Amino acid sequence: MKYLTGSCLCGNVKIRVADQFHFVGYCHCSECRKWSGSAFAAGGLVGAENFEIVSGEELVSCYHNSEETDLCFCGTCGASLFSKKLKLGSYIVRLGILDDAPTQRPNVHIFTASKAPWFELTDQLAKFEQLP
Ligand SMILES: [Zn+2]
Ligand SMILES: [Zn+2]
């Protein structure tokens, strides 16, 4: 199995994740927009067995957003790192924190019904108003 490394802006938190996501896509939901501060978030879903915090675990803070989701970030630099899907026992890694390029490319836009009105989707990827 090939692994990818990721890190926060200040470099204190490092993660390792298998280069094999169940899902890789762009999410336009209001949660991702608020949390990323951007038009959408690029994320990859992995099982807990394929996700590891290699260093800086004590610096990782999580915001309990709902009974389904904890949003975890670096308490030092504030970088969004990953969300913990509490019911699935899996993680959605923010692809922007990866230091390596994943083999898979995002191939779908989800929750386009709540996308930012000022952002225009111009690519040919599959689009779903909510989940596929
Ligand atoms: Zn940091
Ligand atoms: Zn989202």
Amino- and carboxy-terminal Cα gap: 27 Å
Number of strands: 11
Order of helices and strands: EEEHEEEEEEEE
Using the 3D structure, state the CATH architecture: Beta Complex
Strand order, largest beta sheet: 6-7-8-9-4-3-10-11
Tell me the major beta sheet: 8 strands, mixed
Write down the Rg.
14 Å
Percent in strands: 35-45%
CATH topology title = Metal Binding Protein, Guanine Nucleotide Exchange Factor, Chain A
Poorly predicted ranges: none
How does the overall form come out from the CA principal axes?
Answer: globular
Family: Belongs to the Gfa family.
Protein name: GFA family protein
Keywords: Lyase, Metal-binding, Zinc
Task: Give a quick precis of the structure.
The protein has 132 residues and is mainly beta.
